[in-house]
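Minutes, project check-in
Item: structure for the 204-residue chain
Input as provided by the requester:
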Amino acid sequence: MKRLLLLATSALLFVTPDGAALASQANQQNENARPTAPANAQRPNRPARPAQAQRPSRPSVQPVRPTKPTRPAQTQRPNRPAVQPTRPAQVQRPSRPSIQPARPVQRPNVRPPTYRPGQTRPSTFRRIHRPVFHYPRGYSYRRWRTGLFLPSLFFSNQYYFNDYYALGIGPPPRGYVWVRYGPDLLLIQRRTGRIVDVIYGAFY
């Protein structure tokens, strides 16, 4: 409100010539009306803050680390002589001969099965040595073929061949016999004398 009054009076001063005198008087009255504070008036003291308790300081001494044990001084090894003693020359042994003695031929323990006509030579067949064959009077070597008929003169124990396992072949079927004719072996049907199979060069 006081400010409004001051503004109003100042406006009147500019309007009327005596307004300046009135405004100055009004200002003096207002200043006299303000209460003056005593010269020696002291402000109330603020309460002092309590002193902060100091924290105990940590010890500045650091723990002593264990020292590593010192290695003992290495003893120097004595120097080896640079010149090595010479070794005696080795005596060479005589070499053995590389020629090995021939091993005897082993016959198979398993006997071949019964021979079948037309089978030809089996894988176990091998030639054997036999004495010289003596032909009957009037006969000489002939190359017999299957389907022909052998004379009845050769149907005897003198010409039968029973050591067929030595050749690596099986026994003849029932009703047939093995007959030797010179270096060849013939499979003959006993009842008719017909040649059903021939193994050439069985003997030497």
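Outcome recorded: Residues 46 and 52 are 18 Å apart (CA to CA).
No further action items on this chain.
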